[in-house]
Specification:
This protein is mainly alpha-helical and about 190 residues long. The protein has one domain. The chain is about 65% helix and about 5% strand. It is built from nine helices and two strands, in the order H-H-H-E-E-H-H-H-H-H-H. A hairpin with a 5-residue loop joins strand 1 and strand 2. The longest helix has 26 residues. It is globular, with a radius of gyration of 18 Å. The chain starts with a helix and ends in a 7-residue tail after the last helix.
C-alpha cells in the first residue's frame, strides 16, 4: 500500500472527523442550513472515493489522489491527448452509487453551499422547488432508512431532527470503501 493512498484516506478521515464535530455543534445551535452544507461536504468525500473506486487503472487512481495532496485539481488525459479537468458531474456520473437519497442530499446540499433562496428555508419551503417525484423519493428514503413518517410534510423543519443520522449513514458508507482504495480493490455497484 502506497504512502499516497494512506495520506489520501487520512485526509478524508480528518475531514470526516471535523465534519462530525461541526455538524453536532451546528445542530445543537439549530443552524440547519449549515448542517446541510456539512452533509454536502461529507458527500463530496463519498463521491470522490466512489469515483476512484470505479477506476481500474490503479496508477491513475494514485495519480488523482496525489493531485489532491499537491493541492491540484483532478485532471485526465482525453482520447485526443488533451488535458480535461474532472468535474463534479464527471464524478457523479462515474459514481453510479449516487442513487436514492444520497443523490438528493447532494443536490439539495449544493444549494446550501452557494448563496441561494434555499437559505430562506424558515420563510419558504425549499422542497417545494423540487418536482413531485423528487419529493416522493426523498420521503421514501427518509422513511426507509430513518423512520420518517411518510404522511408528514417534507420541510426542513420536519426533517431537521434526522440530520445527525443522515450524516452518520453517509460517513459509515464512506468508511466501508476505504479498503478498496487502500488495497487496489474495485467498488462495484
Amino acid at each position: 500500500m502506497s504512502d499516497i493512498k494512506q495520506k489520501y484516506i487520512a485526509l478524508i478521515q480528518k475531514r470526516s472527523e471535523e465534519n462530525e464535530k461541526a455538524i453536532m455543534l451546528l445542530f445543537d445551535q439549530n443552524l440547519i442550513g449549515n448542517c446541510i452544507a456539512i452533509l454536502r461536504q461529507e458527500l463530496d468525500s463519498f463521491i470522490r472515493v466512489m469515483y476512484l473506486g470505479r477506476i481500474s487503472d490503479f496508477h491513475e487512481r494514485e495519480r488523482l489522489m496525489n493531485q489532491t495532496l499537491l493541492g491540484e485539481k483532478w485532471s485526465i488525459l482525453t482520447p485526443n491527448n488533451k488535458i480535461k479537468y474532472v468535474t463534479y458531474r464527471d464524478m457523479v456520473e462515474k459514481s453510479t452509487e449516487l442513487k436514492g437519497y444520497i443523490q438528493y442530499v447532494y443536490k439539495f446540499g449544493c444549494a446550501f453551499i452557494h448563496l441561494s433562496d434555499f437559505h430562506n428555508y424558515i420563510e419558504e419551503n425549499p422542497f417545494e422547488k423540487l418536482d413531485y417525484s423528487e419529493q416522493f423519493d426523498i420521503v421514501l428514503y427518509l422513511h426507509q432508512y430513518h423512520g420518517f413518517n411518510r404522511n408528514s410534510e417534507l420541510t426542513v423543519e420536519n426533517i431537521s431532527y434526522l440530520i445527525p443520522n443522515i450524516f452518520e449513514k453517509i460517513s459509515k458508507n464512506l468508511t466501508c470503501y476505504f479498503s478498496a482504495i487502500l488495497y487496489d480493490g474495485m467498488i462495484e455497484m
